């Protein structure tokens, strides 16, 4: 099989391109996982990376004497980085902290965001134009866009900054994130969902009040 590939220059170009995409994708994923502190994930990617290197890249490096092979190698390297970044984006490992400053003081917004399943710590601070509600919201990375769209639906003028914490320790932040709730709503229907949650809470309060009377 290796001989057949070597005898066909265009097949060799294709093999070099594909092998380098796979190799560099694993390399990129390993690097990102290492930087994020996911040691076991990084170790797993390093195993796959080494496997591709030993099996495939040896063949590639032995056939870089032709210009088209060099071009395929370079293009595969660049494409591999893009593919690796895209895979990491889809996996969306870890959490993000979203800092929000509302356009005006809003006592209900933190509760609404919390009801949707996010972990929220909030307070009130003063800006140039008066008192504002500030929130630190913890969300899995895969729900970042959903959270931002939700906040815009509830307060389109809110100031939003996101950052990725390197370490999370103490408190109940990760436990406070209710993934099932996060999956079960869409930003465009957030007001309807919050109304349903509010009605359910009122019914629960009424039942508890009746139990206390009994």
From TrEMBL:
Xref: CDD domains: YitT_C_like_1 (cd16381)
Compartments where located: Cell membrane
Record-annotated membrane-spanning stretches: 12-29, 41-61, 67-85
Record's keyword terms, sorted: Cell membrane, Membrane, Transmembrane, Transmembrane helix
Membrane topology per record: Multi-pass membrane protein
GO cellular component, one term: plasma membrane
Annotated coiled-coil segments of the chain: none
One Pfam family per UniProt: DUF2179
InterPro entries noted in UniProt: DUF2179 (IPR019264), DUF5698 (IPR044035), UPF0316 (IPR022930)
Domain DUF5698: from-to ranges: 28-84
Domain called DUF2179: residue spans: 118-170
Primary location class: membrane
Similarity-based family: Belongs to the UPF0316 family.
HAMAP family in alphabetical order: UPF0316
Name by which UniProt lists this protein: UPF0316 protein FO441_08165
């Amino acid at each position: 099989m290796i001989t057949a590939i070597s005898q066909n220059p265009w097949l060799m170009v294709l093999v070099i391109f594909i092998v380098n995409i796979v190799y560099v994708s694993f390399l990129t994923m390993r690097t990102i996982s290492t930087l994020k502190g996911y040691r076991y994930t990084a170790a797993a990617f390093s195993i796959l990376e080494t496997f591709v290197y030993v099996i495939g890249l040896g063949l590639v490096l032995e056939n870089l004497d032709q210009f088209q092979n060099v071009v395929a190698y370079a293009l595969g390297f660049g494409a591999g980085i893009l593919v690796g970044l895209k895979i990491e984006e889809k996996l969306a490992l870890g959490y993000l902290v979203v800092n929000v400053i509302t356009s005006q003081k809003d006592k209900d917004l933190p509760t609404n965001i919390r009801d949707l399943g996010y972990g929220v710590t909030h307070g009130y601070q003063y800006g140039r134009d008066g008192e504002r509600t500030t929130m630190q919201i913890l969300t899995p990375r895969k729900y970042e866009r959903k959270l931002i769209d939700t906040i815009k639906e509830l307060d389109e003028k809110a100031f939003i900054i996101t950052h990725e914490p390197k370490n999370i320790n103490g408190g109940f932040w990760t436990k406070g994130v209710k993934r099932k709730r996060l999956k079960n709503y869409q930003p465009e229907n957030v007001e309807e969902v919050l109304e349903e949650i509010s009605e359910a809470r009122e019914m629960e309060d009424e039942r508890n009040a009746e139990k206390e009377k009994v």
